[in-house]
Design brief:
Elements: H1 2-46, H2 57-89, H3 92-135
Helix pairs in contact: 1-2, 2-3
């Protein structure tokens, strides 16, 4: 009976993991979309045409980055849970592997957070420059 409950819990965890993986794929698609928009902006600029009708890429990048950070946070929590379970079982090999996965998850999450913070900083700086340009007297 306990084994069945453990298997059911593992299935629930896997189902939630699949949702977060789908969200990561969505974040990648948003990144692809923003790259395609940028490419179109560059092509239009090379042709001397107006590209102002194209959507801004910054919101797409920020949304994709925020989704990624959230998903990676989940996977870090999952790695920590796996590490606790490995320690409880006392298997040195599983414990070492779980420790490596915790560090890998943490580092990837930190990289994603840095990227999101950078994107937000760039957008804030651009908005400040635009505000200064529109409020300066002629």
């Amino acid at each position: 009976m306990a084994e069945r409950q453990e298997l059911e819990q593992d299935l629930k965890t896997l189902n939630v993991s699949l949702v977060f993986l789908i969200l990561i794929v969505l974040a990648v698609l948003l990144s692809l979309w923003s790259a395609l928009i940028q490419r179109e902006q560059l092509k239009l600029a090379l042709e001397g045409k107006d590209s102002s009708w194209l959507p801004s890429v910054e919101p797409l990048r920020q949304i994709g980055s925020a989704i990624t950070v959230g998903c990676l946070g989940f996977f870090l929590c999952l790695a920590l849970k796996t590490q606790r379970e490995a320690q409880a079982k006392g298997d040195p090999s599983a414990n070492r592997s779980a420790q490596v996965n915790v560090w890998a998850s943490l580092l990837v999450l930190l990289a994603a957070i840095l990227r999101l913070v950078d994107l937000q900083s760039v957008v804030r700086e651009q908005q400040s420059l635009l505000l200064e340009e529109t409020t300066l007297p002629d």
